[in-house]
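Reviewers of the previous submission asked for a worked example of the structure-prediction workflow described in the proposal, so we include one complete record here. The input consisted solely of the amino acid sequence. No template or homolog information was supplied to the procedure at any stage.
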Amino acid sequence: MRIGLAQINPIVGDLAGNRLRILRAYQTLVEQGADLVLFPELVVCGYPPRDLLLRKRFLTDVEEATRELATQIGEVPALVGFAEPNQSGQGRPAYNSAAFCHRGQIMQVARKCLLPTYDVFDEDRYFEPAGEPTVVEFRGQRIGVTICEDLWAQELVSARRLYDFDPVQRLAKARLDLMLNLSASPWQLAKNSVRRTLVSDAAKACRCPVAYCNAVGGNDELLFEGRSVVSDAAGNLLAGFAAFREELRVVAVTPGHDLAPPEGAPVALAAHPTYEQEQLADVYDALVLGVRDYAHKTGFTKALLGLSGGIDSAVVAVIAAEALGAANVTGVSLPSVISSQHSKDDAAALAKNLGLEFQTIPIAGVVTSAEAALAPMFAGRPRDTAEENIQARARGLLLMAISNKFNALLLTTGNKSEFAVGYCTLYGDMAGGLAVISDVFKTQVFALARWINRDREIIPTSTIEKPPSAELRPDQTDQDSLPPYDLLDALLKGYVEESLSRAELIARGFDPAVVADVVRKVDLNEYKRKQAAPGLKITSLAFGVGRRIPIVQKYVS
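From that input alone, the workflow returned the following structure tokens.
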């Protein structure tokens, strides 16, 4: 059987547009010889639809769009993910379902059994679970249908949530000829190897080929990288699809139970060049996709950012130019009286290397005016961070004005290390519409900059090599206030991403005084992060919807 996998990029809520995307992909794959076409999870409405599912007409509109779509499906069936209204009168308002469309009708509906409710997922809020996975009969073949999390009940991944049963194990008793999985599985670092193992294990458990079709694209902070895969009955991966881009491909499998490749026959993975690539390439491609989709799906064609001459804004500028085209990105230098000449020179050199429009707007006058206005109230008090932050807020004011005037998305440039400890200014450098690298630690920013420069100098070498500084005062560096970034990032990874206690961090060898200081800063600055622009998620736990720490709390770990 020739399975056509439609790894496409839907837009949440764009029912008419998604229907056209689905039909175009379907027609292409049919022309390529597909016997059956597989689409991602909730492809009709996009994933995650979140509280759109609670709007009165949304589910009805999704169901109508799916039925209209089915009328366009001919002799080659399509398995399409959609949100199905729950007509039982009990439980949640919808099912996370897959429609088996054939000859102009929805012939059968399969429903998702396992509903993830952890990290960024909250499917229990909207969906009722199915009691059993579904088996579809087609051309005398028994085809098991699973949806995303239905593959994730193994011990390999069950630490975050335990389920009452394993749909794959249930289907293993059904003597399947083929399993199909519709997914919208967000990307994070190192996830692909886990996903490959799950697909391979499902094939071996059910003793049949498995085709796994994953969504691609950026929706708010979530990034979906695709990387759909097909496995034979022995768990050997036959095909690996592109990462962070759409791909339509037909893959031939041999349906049947207990089938395995002939003895000694080599099985080669027919993979797109990006299916297996180095980690920094993944990070870069993910951030580029996130910026492009966030901008385009919200109606922006242009972006701007402040170019300080520092490494963070340099990396964001490179990503923005790749995502939107250099002609659509404006870099603005906003020097104060404290700004060093090398920072101004580095900003200009970066813009020239990238081909960005580059503007310089000195802020000394704005800062002086603000300080003069505040002088009567601040009289008799020493200068401190209040005055230092006027610089950042002056820049935020001017950048937001430019954003409004030219309808350009303002990209913020703060990294995860800064966000964690509050080394950022509310209504200053935090002002903007998208926090591009807010889930990228400072040490990762340096590594990404060097990777960007792997073939030629794009980011000035001096930007990478000079000590990081916010230039809040003459000769100031980040390490005046923070531990060295390699130490800080390791500590933050333990506290934020692994949820380790102070005692556990100290047991790992961190200095107790440093632990106490950093943990205190992380906890005290939750209020800033709640007011930050949405940030693109690349790690197992980002600041955002997946991390719900109260602002008002006094717990000491």
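DSSP finds 16 helices and 20 strands in the chain. We consider this example representative of the routine output the project will generate in years two and three.
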